[in-house]
Amino acid sequence: MLTARNSLKAELLHWSQDRDFRQISFATLRANRQIQRDLLAMLTTLRIKNLALVADLTLELQPGYNAITGETGAGKSILIGALNLVLGERADRALIRSGSDSCTVEAVFDVSRLRAPLEKFLEENGLEPCQDHQLLLKRTFTATGANRQFVNGSATTLNLLAALGEWLVDIHGPHDHQSLLHSARQLAILDAFGGLGPLRDNFADLVRCRAALQAEKASLIVDEKTYAQQLDLLRHQVNEIAAAKLRPEEEEEIEREHRLASNAARLLELSQAALRQLTEDETSLASQAGALGRTLQELKRLDPDAVCLFSLHEQALSFLRDLQSDLSHYADKLDIDPARRQWLEERLDLIQSLKRKYGATLPDVIGFGDEARQKLQNLEMRDAELERINGELGKTDAELKRAGEELSAQRREMIPKLSKAVAGQLADLGFNQSRFDIAVVSTAFGAEATAPHSALRTPPSTGFDQVEFQFAPNPGEPPRPLRAIASSGEMARVMLALKTVLAAQDDIPVLVFDEVDANVGGETARAVGEKMRRLGEQRQVLCITHLAPVAACASAHYIVTKETRLLRTVTGIRRLEGKERVTELARMLGGRTEAARKHAEELLREGAACWNPSHKQDQGSTESRPT
Predict the structure, then answer these.
(1) Across residues 227-243, what is the average pLDDT?
(2) For 280, which DSSP code?
(3) Rounded distance, CA 382 to CA 387, Å?
(4) Which residue in 414, 458, 416 sits closest to 197, CA to CA?
(5) Is the pTM for the entire model greater than 0.70?
(6) Are 258 and 348 in contact (CB under 8 A)?
């Protein structure tokens, strides 16, 4: 964020000689500070190395609405491609810059206010936690096809990278991953718009309860032959384990005793040899200790001060007597009964056999026996258990039907409100006679279900409904599913309308739009820019645009350029400040004439008037979550 603050200060100094530009820059500063406080999360840095025409590029992005412009073919689409790569899209080796062996893309996100359970996700997947609320994603691929990807420095898989990308970025353009096109996501958006989360969660809990009861019931409903076989098997397992009378810790004890019994002859031989060396041989320690004692006795007689030496000798004799006694007892215990030794061997064989059948350890075998005993008890009381389960299923199905119907009714009540709000936004974007509908199909449940066995099937955890967003851009045409729209420009504007309506409910913090201004102009272009600005109050927005009215509404403006260095074409990007922005907008308006510059300055002044996030003059056409 320091980079953003410094760049804004530089902008103020650069424009300090012009009163109008000073007003614009102060508006930008206030807007960015407010937006930075309100954003859920944002992409702060994007670094690209050796991708297509990019040699080494670092882009520091701002909160709010970021516009990206440049000549056709300058390489603006490379930014979208880089984002897609670092968010888990499949890599194309042809994208590696000519003369390079590898390509790297890094993205840094500020996730201090991200609503998704990121910390838990990182921990569960063995990834390093974020430092200072900064999430670092990195993707590297080589000309040989090797891929490496990292999250906060931890190596990970493309699937995990893509999962994070679904939480962080929604890209709308020719090469996008659009979450709004999936039926499940559309249903989630409708529920979020209507505040139906508690109803949906309650329904999901009932579905999980029903699935558990169905699984329990399925384990009891078998044909008589299978039922008899299961009883015989369970009885055998329970009796076999029970007859063994296992103790969790006995295996170690028996192995230790068996080891002693197996080596008893050699141990007895060694202990008896030790006893002979200690007391029985002519050169035994006891004989030598006696001779040593007599010598020390004579020494003490001649020198009374040597009494301490004699005392130590007495202690040594005491230790030798203790050793002799312990060796004798040890040798006596080594006289193992052959019958005991055979029993130990048989017991070990039994334990190993049970472990091969029922578990890796004795506690596992004992646990298996307890489970088998419970299953046997349930099977022997099958009729009573089935009656209990069917009773609980009946109650659960009644609750599930009631909850699902209530959820469906609430959804149908929300559909016209959401459709109306989106249609209003589409009208502002040039679709004056378009239609936006939401088709809903509900599956019957319970007694009303007509499909075979449908009443026995557990419904999806999202409810009985499936929805499909539909759009008809031209009058007289029937609405078609949103995913079937051919024009990327139409698709992008529909997405923009949806995002504007749902900005308060959608949790994806970074929105990227490419070709959102395709085939529009005039007031529609201005409306597109204004909606981008409004989205930027609650999300970070990146928009690649060819229209000056769209770019003029941005709180940060970047230009992509292409130049030749050392006989190589290189793409670069930099933030425009001061009158540079006027020059770029004038170019986009068709030239660098004085009239174009004045028009550009006017667009910037109009945009600055809307850069205050508290500006809500246009909310009349936006319907937020109903109360």
Answers:
(1) 89
(2) I
(3) 8
(4) 414
(5) no
(6) yes
Q: Are 540 and 509 in contact (CB under 8 A)?
A: yes
Rounded Cα gap, residues 273 and 146, in angstroms: 68
According to DSSP, the residues that pair with 60 across neighbouring strands are 45
Residue 68, phi-psi category: left (phi > 0), alpha (psi -120 to 50), beta (remainder):
beta
- Dump pLDDT digits (tens) for 374-433: 888 887 777 788 889 999 999 999 999 999 999 999 999 999 999 998 888 888 887 888
Return the minimum-mean-pLDDT range out of 63-77, 315-329, 441-455, 489-503: 441-455
**Tens digits of residue pLDDT in 375-391:** 888 877 777 888 899 99
Specify the pLDDT at position 465.
93
Q: Starting at the edge strand that comes first in sequence, how are the strands of the sheet with 465-472 ordered?
A: 435-442, 465-472, 480-481
Helix (H) or strand (E) holding 513: strand 510-514
408, 463 Cβ separation under 8 angstroms: yes
- Tokens standing for residue 40: 């859920």
Across-strand partners of 583?
none
- 459 burial type by CB count under 10 A (0-12 exposed, 13-18 middle, 19+ buried): buried
Here the tokens at position 11 are 């902008």
For the chain, what percent of residues have pLDDT higher than 90? 22
Sign of CA dihedral 443, 445, 450, 455: positive
Judge contact between 143 and 149, C-beta under 8 A.
no
Q: For residue 303, give the 3-state DSSP assignment.
A: coil
| Burial (Cβ within 10 Å: 0-12, 13-18, ≥19) of residue 421 | buried
| Residue pLDDT, tens place only, 586-599 | 888 887 788 888 88
Fold of the domain spanning 2-169+540-621: Rossmann fold (3.40.50)
Q: How many residues does the chain have?
A: 627
Q: In sequence order, which ranges of 219-284 are alpha helices (DSSP H)? A: 224-244, 250-262, 264-275
At 240, the pLDDT band (50, 70, 90 cuts) reads: very high
CA angle 392, 397, 400 (to 5 degrees): 125
**3-class secondary-structure state, position 559:** strand
What is the DSSP secondary-structure string of 71-126? -TTSSHHHHHHHHHHHTTPPP-GGGBPTT-SEEEEEEEEE-TT--S-HHHHHHHTT
Taking the C-alpha atoms of residue 175 and residue 45, their distance in angstroms, rounded to an integer, is 21
Cα–Cα distances (Å) from 250 to 125, 354, 372, in that order, read 38, 14, 22
All structural domains of the chain with their residue ranges: 2-169+540-621, 246-374
Copy the structure tokens of residue 332. Answer: 């006596």
pLDDT digits 0-9 by tens, 529-558: 888 888 888 889 999 888 888 899 998 999
